[in-house]
Amino acid sequence: MSVLHIPKPDGTSEKVPVTPENTKRYIESIPLYRDDDDPLFWPQEKIAEMQNEMFKRQMEWVWDGHDYYKKVFKESGIKPEDIQSLDDLEKLPLTHKKDYMADPDGFKLKPSNPSLYDWDFEVTYTTGSTTGVPTPFWNTIHDAHGIWHMLFRGAKLGGFPPYSRGINLFPLGPVPHIGFFRARDVGMMGLGSLNMYGCTGMMYPEFPVHRTMDYAMDLIEKGKAEVWLGIASFMRRLIMQAEKEGRDFSATKHIQALGEACPQAMREDMKRRLQNMGAEDPFISNSYGFTEMQGAMPECTDFSGCHNPSPNLYFFEVVDEETGRRVPDGERGLFCITHLNRKGTVLLRYVIGDLGAITHEPCPHCGRNGERTVIVVGSTYATRISELVNLKGTLINPEILRDEVANTPGVKEYQIVFTKKDPEDPFSLDELIVKVASEEGFDRAKIENEIQTKLVTAVEMRAKVEFVEMEEIYDPTVALKAYRIIDTRPSEG
Ligand SMILES: [Zn+2]
Fold this sequence. Notes:
- The chain is an alpha/beta fold.
- Helix content is about 30%, strand content about 20%.
- It has a five-stranded parallel β-sheet with strand order 6-5-7-8-9, sandwiched between helices. Strands 12, 13, 14, 15 and 16 form a five-stranded antiparallel β-sheet that branches. The chain has a four-stranded mixed β-sheet with strand order 21-20-19-22, covered by helices on one side.
- The mean pLDDT is about 90.
């Protein structure tokens, strides 16, 4: 269970469960947090008022220097006076990934009267997981400050233990993605945190700066890492290896598993293994992050929903896939972001590519207002739209398959494969194969039976279960993430 660490004068800390009362105490006990006028504790109406003001200014910047939206507005006859508040957003068309990818430079503000803070600071790239081509996302100096401030609020929201030793376990990849660099910046903004860097990732032989998973494990063990940030499946793999080697990970308190869903069974598995290595009661948290927000929405406690840490930067809405209209709280639809205070790449009503749901109800755990995602499938928050697959003529949500397989006792690692009965014949029947690396001491026939029964219930399909070696489905020296869903069928059209 997650706890808040309230610092005591003698340098130790008191561990308390996350409740609205204890969250207040935690914030009051730390001057940096106490003095932050955090909109998440304002009444809903005041947050909305502030967001409308930010949006108005953002729209002035857009009318001044945003090539793409000026063109779109002109084509649809939209005038500045038509868009006065966030309620008017629905008059604007949705922006899809393909629009942004076709002309990334058209989404970059070109102010007519730039100041020092409008200069370019850096460019990061989307991971391009759907198309394989990374798209640039520009941050100005203004944006960099906004991002740091969001990460400060994120560390506060996620209840990072104060004055702790952190480790950045994101790979230092060839393309600057947000993972490694924003985890670095959280370290910079977290309260008194000292930081270590695993620097794993694809080698660049000319400059050998990359390091091994062994090195990362040494840092955690000898450097007594308390807070970890990284990709969920990579960290789990590291934990499994460390457990095998009998390492001492007793210092671990708080893990931010990012980059993919981290369902309940996976969290429990990681926690149990960490406890075998001496950790007391580590909190495995799953934040929802993406390039277009340059950070992540943290949970305040297990499955609390992912909070928007900065309503002054971002407005989220969930819209109907067909009509683009906003859907009520709790209803599932396309998850969209609108930037409220950015000077580099600016997106309005941008479709992130996930189906999800949000709520504006005050959080029963921490008492914060503002929006937060709610669980939509099993124990995960969002499903990627591009991952909806057609199997035997039925649209299937692989997230449901993942949740069912991951939550089967005895499954150590798995891979779900969509293939053809006869791989040589593209017109042969679709087949669903679940490759499983099983836990020692579990009865394979029982695992097989359980998976088949579950999948017949969940997706009305019989799966072939194959038992394989762990390395066959996930080798962390080759892949950054575990590829849990693979479609080997020839693409249509
Ligand atoms: Zn909360």
